[in-house]
Amino acid sequence: MMSRLRIGARASVMSLTQTAPLLSALAPTKTVLVPFYDAGGDREGGARTALESDGVFTDEIEKALLAGDIDIAVHCLKDTPTHDTPGLVLGGFRPRGDLRDALVHRDPGMTLETLPEGARIGTASVRRRAYLRRLRPELEITPLRGPVDERLAALDAGKIDGLIVASSGMDRLGLAHRISHRIPPELVCPPLGAAAVVLQCREDDEIPLNIATGLSDPTAETLAAAERTVLREMGGFCNAPLAGYATTDGEQITVRAAAFTPDGNVLIEAHHTGPDAQETAMTVCQCLTRHGARSLAQAAA
Question: What's this model's pTM, rounded to 2 decimal places?
Answer without folding.
Answer: 0.91
